[in-house]
Structure formats: C-alpha cells, structure tokens
Amino acid sequence: MFKTILIPVDLEEPAFAEPAIAVALRELDRDGGSIHLMTVMPGFASPLVASYFDPAVLQKAHDGVNRHLVEFAARQLPADVAHSLSVHQGHPAERIIKQAAAIQADMIIMSAHHRSRLDSVLLGSNSARVVERAQCSVMILREAPQARP
Q1: Phi/psi of residue 85, nearest 5 degrees
Q2: With contact defined as beta carbons under 8 Å apart, do 112 and 142 qualify?
Q3: DSSP code of residue 104
Q4: Which residue, 25, 29, 14, is CA-closest to 109?
Q5: Domain-embedded: residue 148
Q6: How many domains does the chain have?
Q7: 8-state DSSP, 46
Q8: Cα first-last separation, the chain
Q9: 11-27 pLDDT, tens digit each
C-alpha cells in the first residue's frame, strides 16, 4: 500500500489517466493515504513564448486549466479519497519529477502515450524520463494493443 500517489493528467487526453486512477485507488493506503493529480500546461513553458503574453492572460489560462483539473477530479475520484491537485508550467517529465519530490510521493502512476508503431515498442519520452529520474517507484501503464486491420 502506498501513502502518496502522484498521477499526471493530460487534460487534452484525460482518458489516459483513468486506468492510472483505477490502479491508484486499488494501491492506495486508505488509512491516511492520498492521491495527487497534476497537469502541466502546454504552450507557455518557453520563456520566449511566455514573453508574448500578458501575465493576466497567463493567469487566466492557469485558472482555466485548474478548473478543468478540479472537474476531472470530481468525476474520477470518490468523495472519501483524500486528494490534492496542482497545475504546472514547463517540461512535463521534469515537472512530474519535481512534483513527486515536493509531495514526497512514494509512487507515480502514469499511462504511456502510444501514437505510432514505434511508440508501441518504446516508452514515450516523458514516461522514459520519469522512470529514469524519479526517486520513487514508477508504474507505467501501457495501452492495450489496438487491432490492426
């Protein structure tokens, strides 16, 4: 049983996080354990890109992403499960690793995205980097192979 489980959520493809949540609910120590859902905002990570946007626009985007994460958590997590949420900017793998350390996660559960035949053999770059660098256990869930015509 794990006390603190971190689950990265791609809000552009939230269904990828659903299997991770199901596993986390099974593996979570219900006596004081918690799930932390996090997401990384796309697009604003680069200082060059961010310099073109007014800080108020960046804050509005952050608030909108946070609302989506809150709604996702409300749909996916049972009311009796302790949880926390966070929204980040930056490179996804780096932010996941930093957040895991910040919350002292003892498990990261994430789904590998497979968008090509090569991806079905290899882990995605974010998954691979998290596995390589995280200081806690990492569980990568692969999608079931799609039937090819």
Answers
A1: -135, 150
A2: yes
A3: T
A4: 25
A5: no
A6: 1
A7: S
A8: 41
A9: 998 998 999 999 999 99
